[in-house]
């Protein structure tokens, strides 16, 4: 096999497929810039750096994946111009997704595995297509994870806010405890005891006390007011 001829022919084919994306560094080294199709308004580009070993395609090519930083810088400058001109910026999760160094390593390993499966034939176009597809899938996975975490955080905040407006349920025990404390603070039991003593001194019968509204009329009002006040405090 004429390795040099195989390499030259593959680069020529790649240049016809990627006329603007491929940058030749030498006869055995070049890069291909790939624009990913994502949901993000921020455009993401990856660069596949390829170097041919002397006996390629009988051996695996040297591959490196990186982020196109120059493209990011250009977008940042455009964003700064919009902000300085008074444009309102809305933060969207898909615009906050980026590829980490671990992500790039994961993509490289994926390409190397496929390159071993294609030993003996020119494989850069196939590897380039695999990189684009794998990167777009990885982006969507990262976005789905970020969306889930964001929704969980919003739900947590919502629950905390709801606690501020959620009163403690009133039970018989809690009402009786509050009623005892309330009556003690206002001295209602002492007043009732004194009133009963005064009534007994007047020698009124129980029926007379009831008919005259002297036995508990005020207490009923007090309890009614107490319940209303308890609900107000507990809420």
Question: What can you see in these coordinates?
Answer:
The chain has 235 residues and is an alpha+beta fold. It has two domains: 3-163, Ubiquitin Conjugating Enzyme (Roll), CATH 3.10.110.10; 172-234, no CATH class. 60% of the residues lie in helices and 11% in strands. It has eight helices and four strands, in the order H-E-E-E-E-H-H-H-H-H-H-H. It has a four-stranded antiparallel sheet with strand order 1-2-3-4. The longest helix has 41 residues, at 124-164. It is rod-shaped and about 130 Å long. The protein starts with a helix and ends with a helix. Residues 69-85 have a biased composition (Acidic residues). Pfam families: DFRP_C, RWD. Residues 9-138 form the RWD domain. Residues 69-88 are annotated as: Disordered. This is BA75_01586T0.
Give a brief description:
The chain has 235 residues and is of the alpha+beta class. The chain is built from eight helices and four strands; from the N terminus they run αββββααααααα. It has two domains: 3-163, Ubiquitin Conjugating Enzyme; 172-234, no CATH class.
């Amino acid at each position: 096999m004429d390795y040099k001829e195989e390499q030259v022919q593959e680069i020529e084919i790649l240049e016809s497929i990627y006329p603007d994306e491929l940058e030749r560094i030498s006869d055995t080294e070049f890069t291909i810039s790939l624009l990913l199709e994502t949901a993000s308004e921020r455009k993401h580009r990856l660069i596949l750096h390829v170097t041919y070993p002397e006996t390629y395609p009988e051996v695996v090519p040297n591959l490196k994946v990186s982020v196109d930083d120059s493209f990011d810088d250009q977008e940042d400058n455009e964003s700064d111009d919009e902000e300085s001109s008074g444009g309102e910026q809305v933060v969207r999760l898909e615009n906050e997704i980026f590829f980490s160094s671990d992500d790039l390593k994961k993509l490289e390993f994926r390409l190397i595995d496929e390159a071993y499966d294609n030993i003996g034939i020119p494989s850069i176009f196939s590897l380039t297509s695999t990189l684009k597809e794998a990167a777009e899938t990885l982006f969507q996975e990262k976005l789905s994870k970020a969306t889930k975490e964001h929704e969980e955080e919003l739900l947590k905040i919502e629950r905390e806010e709801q606690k501020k407006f959620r009163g403690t349920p009133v039970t018989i025990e809690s009402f009786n405890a509050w009623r005892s404390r309330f009556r003690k603070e206002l001295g209602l039991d002492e007043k009732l005891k004194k009133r009963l003593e005064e009534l007994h001194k007047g020698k009124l019968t129980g029926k007379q006390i009831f008919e005259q509204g002297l036995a508990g009329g005020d207490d009923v009002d007090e309890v009614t007011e107490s319940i209303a006040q308890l609900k107000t405090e507990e809420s």
